[in-house]
Every structure is written in structure tokens, then in C-alpha cells.
From TrEMBL:
Comment on bound cofactor: Binds 1 Mg(2+) ion per subunit.
Keyword Acetylation tagged: no
Species whose genome carries this gene: Lysinibacillus halotolerans
Gene: thiE
Name used for this protein in its record: Thiamine-phosphate synthase
Recorded GO MF terms: magnesium ion binding; thiamine-phosphate diphosphorylase activity
Keyword Acyltransferase: no
Length: 209
């Protein structure tokens, strides 16, 4: 994985979309997102075979556009689909166990403080997701916002480590995040709720290159 893969990291599930989710994803892929995370959560989230089939459809689109397909939290699904990688939180399976099952795949970890960061590095995560940077509506149980100061702190300590920032990031505030040292931005609402998804992705890309 290159650090540039994190430039515009799109996260999506059916509950995040106002219209057909696969159309939303294809628009984002055509516009040039650099990584996609399948995150199907919430009270009305798909279950069972519908869940697996929706994941497969997202994966097919990502493969077509040569964009890494990452599964959020669900180790079983990621293995079943032979996803390009998995992203886990602090309460999920231990990273060392995941690495055993995902040799040669991308593993990302969410971190909220320095202790979690050093553990992620020590245990071989390929990248970390730091956040929430700003207040977010996409994750009801999100930790309190850290602002960009934590990114600066981590970037100073780990100058070459792949970092993606998440939480309340928009085309208006993404510059602040990138200047603090993040390699890219991970977004849900900014793309899902946009009235012009291609333009939104392009604006994120322009700020990143």
C-alpha cells in the first residue's frame, strides 16, 4: 500500500445514502476516490445473504476501477470475499490475530490516542485512521473530536507512517487536516450527501495533490 492510496478514502453503507448506493459508489469511483471501505452498519443495515451480495457488488465495482476494497470490522466477510484489506477498531479482534489471517493484505486501525497509535505501529498495522477530527453525524457513538493537533503530534513522532483522518471532514476543512500532516481524508457524508458527488471528489483530490 502507498500513502497516496489514502488520499480520498470513501466509506459507505446503504444507510448513508439518499439514493441507490451502488450509483453513489460508482460516481465516486469514476471521480477518482483512491480507496473504498465497505461499512454496512445501523438499525436498517442489510443482513444475511443481502448483506453479502451488496458487499460483492461494491467489490466488483472497486475491482473494475482498480481501487482497493476494504471491509470494516467483519473479518469473516473480508476472508470470504478475499477483500484487499480490513479496517478494525479498538474493540475488535487483536491485530496480531488479524495479521495471521490476512497475510499480504491491507490492515487499518482506528486510533484515538498515543497509546493506541504506538500499539498499532508495534503490531504491524499498514495505516491508521485518526479521528474524529471534527464533530461527526455519521457515527453516533464516536469519541469526542480531537481537532488537528493530534495529527500534528503523531506526524512529528512518525514522519513516514500512513495516516488518514476521519470525522466531520468536508471540502472546506480538508486543507487544515492535510496541512497538519494527514496523507488523506476519509469521508462518508461529504460524498454520500453531496448533490454533485463528482465535483466533491474532485475538490478533495485537488487539495491533496
Amino acid at each position: 500500500m502507498n500513502r497516496s492510496d489514502l488520499a480520498v478514502y470513501f466509506i459507505m453503507g446503504t444507510e448513508n445514502c439518499k439514493e441507490e448506493p451502488l450509483n453513489v459508489l460508482e460516481d465516486a469511483l469514476q471521480a477518482g476516490i483512491t480507496m473504498f471501505q465497505f461499512r454496512e452498519k445501523g438499525p436498517r443495515a442489510l443482513k444475511g445473504e443481502e448483506y453479502v451480495e451488496f458487499a460483492r457488488a461494491c467489490q466488483r465495482l472497486c475491482n473494475h476501477y482498480h481501487v482497493p476494497f476494504i471491509v470494516n470490522d467483519d473479518v469473516e466477510l473480508a476472508l470470504k470475499l478475499q477483500a484487499d484489506g480490513i479496517h478494525v477498531g479498538q474493540k475488535d479482534m487483536a491485530l496480531v490475530n488479524i495479521r495471521e489471517q490476512f497475510k499480504g493484505k491491507i490492515i487499518g486501525v482506528s486510533v484515538h490516542n498515543e497509546e493506541e497509535m504506538s500499539k498499532a505501529v508495534l503490531n504491524g498495522a499498514d495505516y491508521v485512521g485518526i479521528g474524529p477530527i471534527f464533530k461527526t453525524t455519521s457515527k453516533p457513538d464516536a469519541e469526542p473530536p480531537t481537532g488537528v493537533s493530534f495529527i500534528k503530534e503523531i506526524r512529528n513522532k512518525y514522519p513516514n507512517y500512513p495516516i488518514v483522518a476521519i470525522g466531520g471532514i468536508t471540502t472546506e476543512n480538508s486543507n487544515e487536516v492535510l496541512q497538519a500532516g494527514a496523507d488523506g481524508v476519509a469521508v462518508i457524508s461529504a460524498i454520500c450527501q453531496s448533490s454533485n458527488r463528482r465535483e466533491t471528489v474532485n475538490r478533495f483530490k485537488t487539495k491533496n495533490y
